[in-house]
């Protein structure tokens, strides 16, 4: 990273945060309703709760979304690479994917709660299933559209199937995979909030809804801030992974 970027990027983040807070404050003044707590009250509650009641909810939510991202990546990437490389397998599986992909996976929440219980397992499975399709389709398309010249050049060096996956398909598809993870993260946070509002007393989603039902709007926004920061940190982690694993993209 260049020295200019080391200064400029944190500055851009700070300016964006200040702009967001200014818009939030202006909106709270204009609407003048207790349902929209001013940012000062929300951040005051956030810093009071972060080491107390809110911290356990953050930990369990982070665990649920983190495990879901890892499992969906471990399942979706190899399968997507295989389908993108093998046209016959792709032709056979495409109808199955296109029939099941558009179905909102959250409709299966009652089924998962009955089959897998109300603990972490049902929530992780639902989030994983939602992100899995996004990673699968993106990886498959990236592998299928890979220029044949790259494959042929490595084949001419007598590379076997495993070496093709390792040295051609996976590196070439990695930027698309990380992009799908960024897109999937936003969806994962939405599904996380939804699943934590049903049959549970743990997680940021539960904390937000519990605060809302007790009319503690400052605490409700403290939970929203926590969820936003959690997603922001995960995005930074994905950006860092891209810089390390896809250094050629930033040349």
Automatic annotation (TrEMBL):
Q: Where in the cell is it found?
A: Cell membrane
Query: What's the domain of life for this entry?
Result: Bacteria
Q: Which sequence ranges are marked TM in the entry?
A: 12-31, 62-84, 96-118, 124-143, 164-195, 215-238
Alphabetized, the UniProt keywords read: Cell membrane, Membrane, Transmembrane, Transmembrane helix, Transport
GO CC terms on record? plasma membrane
Q: Where is the ABC transmembrane type-1 domain?
A: 58-238
Q: Which residues form a coiled coil?
A: none
Q: Which GO terms describe its biological process?
A: transmembrane transport
Regarding the membrane, this protein is recorded as: Multi-pass membrane protein
Family affiliation? Belongs to the binding-protein-dependent transport system permease family.
Q: What is this protein called?
A: NitT/TauT family transport system permease protein
